[in-house]
Design brief:
The two termini are 51 Å apart. Strand 19 and strand 20 form a beta hairpin. The strands form five sheets. Strands 1, 3, 18, 19, 20, 21 and 22 form a seven-stranded antiparallel sheet that branches. The protein has 388 residues and is α+β, with helices and mostly antiparallel strands. Among the domains are: 100 residues, conserved putative lor/sdh protein from methanococcus maripaludis s2 fold (Beta Barrel), CATH 2.40.420; 88 residues, Efflux pump adaptor protein, beta barrel domain (Elongation Factor Tu (Ef-tu), domain 3); 82 residues. The chain is rod-shaped, with a radius of gyration of 46 Å. It is built from six helices and 23 strands.
């Protein structure tokens, strides 16, 4: 049996163990309670910090955003000439090559054409017959006046004059169509000398951007010999996605940048907006004129075109309200007078120091408009203390 002393020791030991166990259980309960109410996105502020921030509501306002689309530099189609030969023949000489500047009327190449000489021969034959018919009709008029022949013979000879006149006129037009000038045709009438060498002439002044002929090559009327472009004025052309194209219109102010020319920026107005959507790319073509007096820009350079969208009503917040966290945009939403919670939102473009809200907020909610940086620092400090 235990004596009184032993019984007292056992009793005290039991009480001590029960106390230790009870304290440990109380600590665990308190810690679990704290973890159940702690939210890393929530923050509670005191009166001093509350005075350093500004709260308010998002605003609905008209915004105009900037749209940026890929573009390119192209030759002005109204300043490009495709040059060939109206007669078939063989190239005997090439005078100019790619990259050379030429003037309107300058000879680009020489062509030997049997078809040209054949037409010249037919013209001279008709021209000679016309002169003979005119002389014959004149003699008939004199003979009629002398009663040597009748008027029927005169009418016959005058009809021959009309026929030869028509043949000469037709062949003269044919020679013009083959590229002979009126002066060259007059020389042919005077000298009666056939010339089968045909000059291929520049129809506009500009730069030779393509040459398709070489010496000895046979050229047909449908073939391209040279392509000349006036590069003093070019086009910026952009294929705008159809969902962005609704804000495009003739005369709209746009800017364009060309990375190859030290990010050169050019401003202008749209001179063309396609009335149809390209069914393959689902884009609408738009273009502006690009002055190029110094030849700084070249066709096929890559560029970007920037234009403003149509004004739309949208929900916006100040840029100072945005908190970047884990590469995402957030704002602090007020849940009570001193409580805030960090909420992820989807934001659009920045317009005049404000951001367009696409998702995550409604106009009636109260958020931190300014001082979000201080509030986020307080939230992070609370996280660190809670983890200790």
């Amino acid at each position: 049996m235990l004596n009184r002393t032993d019984l007292l020791v056992v009793t005290l030991a039991g009480v001590s163990l029960a106390g230790i166990s009870g304290c440990k259980h109380a600590d665990e309960t308190a810690k679990a309670a704290r973890s159940s109410v702690t939210n890393p996105l929530k923050v509670q502020v005191d009166a001093e910090l509350l005075r350093q921030i500004m709260v308010g509501n998002p605003q609905v306002q008209e915004v105009t955003t900037q749209e940026k689309v890929a573009a390119r530099v192209e030759t002005d189609a109204s300043r490009v000439a495709r040059i060939g030969s109206p007669v078939d023949g063989r190239i005997t000489q090439v005078v100019v090559y790619e990259g050379q500047r030429v003037k309107q009327g300058q000879v680009l190449a020489m062509l030997h054409s049997n078809a040209l000489s054949d037409t010249q021969f037919a013209f001279l034959k008709a021209f000679t017959q016309e002169r003979l018919a005119q002389q014959s009709a004149e003699r008939a008029r004199q003979l009629v006046q002398s009663d040597v022949i009748g008027t029927a013979e005169l009418q016959k000879r005058e009809a021959e004059v009309l026929q030869t006149d028509a043949e000469v006129a037709a062949l003269r037009a044919q020679l013009r169509g083959l590229g002979m000038s009126d002066h060259a045709i007059q020389q042919l009438e005077t000298t009666k000398k056939l010339n089968s060498d045909y000059p291929i002439i520049a129809s506009i002044s500009g730069t030779v951007i393509e040459r398709k002929v070489t010496v000895g090559q046979v050229l047909q009327p449908a073939d391209l010999a040279f392509q000349i472009a006036d590069l003093s004025s070019l086009w910026f052309v952009a294929d705008v996605p159809e969902e962005q194209a609704r804000s495009l219109y003739l005369g709209k102010n746009v800017t364009a940048t060309i990375p190859a020319v030290a990010d050169k920026t050019v401003s202008g107005k749209l001179t063309f907006v396609s009335p149809v959507v390209n069914p393959q790319t689902r884009t609408v073509q738009a273009r502006m004129i690009l002055p190029n007096p110094e030849g700084l820009f070249k066709p096929e350079m890559l560029a970007s075109m920037i234009f403003e969208s149509r004004p739309e009503r949208a929900l916006t917040i100040p840029s100072t309200a945005v908190v970047r966290e884990d590469n995402k945009d957030h704002v602090f939403v007020q849940t009570s007078e001193s409580d805030f919670i960090l909420r992820e939102v989807e934001l659009g473009d920045e317009v005049s120091d404000r951001r367009v809200v696409q998702k995550g907020l409604i106009p009636s909610e109260t958020i931190v408009l300014d001082g979000a940086f201080h509030l986020n620092n307080k939230r992070r400090q609370d996280q660190i203390k809670g983890a200790e």
